[in-house]
Design brief:
The model has no long low-confidence stretch (mean pLDDT 92). This protein is of the alpha/beta class. Helix content is 34%, strand content 26%. The structure holds adenosine-5'-diphosphate (ADP) (2 copies). Residues 4-239 form the ABC transporter domain.
Length: 239
Amino acid sequence: PWSIRLDEVTVRYPNGTIGLNRVSLDIDAGEMVVVVGLSGSGKSTLIRTINGLVPVTSGTLDVGEHRVSGASPRTLRRLRGDIGMVFQGFNLAGRASVLQNVLVGRLAHTPLWRTLLGVYPEADKQLAYQALDRVAILPKLYSRASELSGGQQQRVAIARALAQEPRIVLADEPVASLDPPTAHGVMNDLRRINRDLGITVVVNLHLLDLAREYGTRMIGMRAGEIVYDGPAASATDAD
Ligand code: ADP
Ligand code: ADP
């Protein structure tokens, strides 16, 4: 797993909006961190910056072995190959099968011609099966993604991230569109990935209750700044 280090990172969007304001943050390899804050506080900017999707305006960002701030497009592509992303909206190809969706996570490692022909190396398929088994969705292998429930679809998205053999998993509001029992199931999966595989996990949440239950370390954000960094269990609304 990889560490994430931000030193005085500021992100200013082209329209002048400040997404992150001189944020310094050290996340160690193998940590599970939950990030909470109101809408517009900078949570998804933080995740998109770590993933190299949003450029750092000033300050330094190191993710594992990569210096992300000021990095070349080539470095950013390699970085993204090592980071598994999970989104609120699942981002699956609805008409494709569960297996095909998970194998997309292997794209960076698979020659293009194989992908175009739908011929996947046996090793890729084994990785996909393992990932689907880990989130208990292997029996749905050949179902169309659109036929699954929301919770099942999010598990497929997690399996897709895992099949990439990531050093880090970043999840942006992964349970925001799920009902509470399903949300707990998905949070449990993320926690098991962290504990069993030792992968560094960062999860954005807008529900403090869930964050308290599943985070060890909680980061609270407001207006692009970190206003709380401490144990999740003892954090209160006032923090
Ligand atoms: P979030 O769930 O993070 O609050 P939003 O609904 O704020 O998401 O934003 C959804 C999309 O709109 C994101 O891709 C974000 O980059 C973009 N966006 C948000 N605010 C602005 C803005 N002020 N100007 C341009 N794009 C924005
Ligand atoms: P959160 O994820 O906590 O809802 P965001 O990171 O989406 O917060 O947003 C932080 C700030 O950056 C907000 O003021 C938002 O409007 C702004 N923002 C987000 N994306 C964009 C964008 N693409 N262009 C301009 N402003 C943006």
